[in-house]
Amino acid sequence: MQLPTQVAYVVIGAGVHGLSTAWHLAKELKVRGRGSGEDVIVLDKTGV
Fold first, then answer.
1. HSE-up of 1 (CA within 13 Å, CB side)?
2. For labelling, which of 1, 9, 16, 33 has a CA lying 20 to 30 Å from the CA of 44?
3. Backbone phi and psi for residue 46, each to the nearest 5 degrees, phi listed first
4. What are the Cα distances from residue 21, in Å, to 2, 32, 47?
5. Beta strands of the chain (E only): which ranges?
6. What is the dihedral of CA 16, 17, 20, 25, to 10 degrees?
7. Number of domains in the chain
8. Measured in whole angstroms, how far is the alpha carbon of residue 22 from the centre of its chain?
9. pLDDT for 1-48, tens place per residue?
10. pTM for the full model?
11. Are 44 and 18 contacting, i.e. CB atoms less than 8 angstroms apart?
12. Is residue 48 part of a domain?
């Protein structure tokens, strides 16, 4: 998988807390008109 060249937010860890954080962040960005899920990336040592 190729990583995007630019993102606004990076969440480290794809456990339940990391994925929940990324999901809620993307949802809130969309509600506020400040971005979307494409602005958030989740990184984990084993891949997602």
1. 9
2. 33
3. -105, 0
4. 22, 16, 17
5. 9-12, 40-43
6. -160
7. 1
8. 4
9. 788 999 999 999 999 999 999 999 999 999 999 999 999 999 999 876
10. 0.85
11. yes
12. no
